Amino acid sequence: xxxxxxxxxxxxxxxxxxxxxxxxxxxxxxxxxxxxxxxxxxxxxxxxxxxxxxxxxxxxxxxxxxxxxxxxxxxxxxxxxxxxxxxxxxxxxxxxxxxxxxxxxxxxxxxxxxxxxxxxxxxxxxxxxxxxxxxxxxxxxxxxxxxxxxxxxxxxxxxxxxxxxxxxxxxxxxxxxxxxxxxxxxxxxxxxxxxxxxxxxxxxxxxxxxxxxxxxxxxxxxxxxxxxxxxxxxxxxxxxxxxxxxxxxxxxxxxxxxxxxxxxxxxxxxxxxxxxxxxxxxxxxxxxxxxxxxxxxxxxxxxxxxxxxxxxxxxxxxxxxxxxxxxxxxxxxxxxxxxxxxxxxxxxxxxxxxxxxxxxxxxxxxxxxxxxxxxxxxxxxxxxxx
Length: 386
Fold this sequence. Notes:
alpha/beta, Rossmann fold, 3 domains, nine-stranded mixed β-sheet, 17 helices, about 10% strand
């Protein structure tokens, strides 16, 4: 494991996961300019002046954290829990995370057997409201199952609501899923999802930036979402109110040049208001896995064309359909009137009317022609579809 971009102590980045918060761009700049080992040395020595970009007060706080950091203990705890640390430069490191620049994770703690780098290549985020509706859970699970069946890895945050439905949908389809947590991966959160997260670790991957035993906070949830956005080719949001954290993921995905998609809901639902705002911008409306893959997949992976059911009248020749449409629905009409409505000759209209009678669409009424009950239903359905 190469834990230092300059080839230093592999434990240096593990040390820093105890000192720096996820997404700390000032710390990321220190690593880029000085290397992890030098940053750790300065934090351990604790002398003045502080590293550039921080106040004296903040430097004091970082030194207090550094005094308690024990990377060897964290690594041993992680190994006992079946967890490994993957750092930039490692074979398993997903290169797309480098798009985060100085906000790139120091490294990731990973539970599960598969290679994180390989699984992140065909990955899509399936995110949304915690307090989702039955519709939201159904759509999230269906999208995840469809993506899993097509060989895609479903990434989400392990939370209640849409996240949990997405993970279960992928697992239920026998597919691959990754949970990105805002806490130590040995400490599943929420506790009600401990069984689900353990199952994900057995069949997939559980990933997080924070060292063993660390708890989640509101800011850590928000910062976790940038990892989900960077790790995947695109983010699908299923139900999200205006202040939903899943919108943070979508906006991060947009900044990173990833695809953003939204599943629409009722116009009156506050839980879909955030999704609808996304769709009014640069996001794409999707309703199933095929439409997601058409956007994020390779050239030629097109979703099937959408159309309504084929009605018997759709199989008629255009000229015959035109004559059928020219007949009024509530009374008989003369051949002359039908011809005028169909914009054809009277002889042609009569020929088409006899054809329609043979098919059960019209019947003679004296010198006129009238639609049968079957034709009335067909014409009404056709007009409704238009």
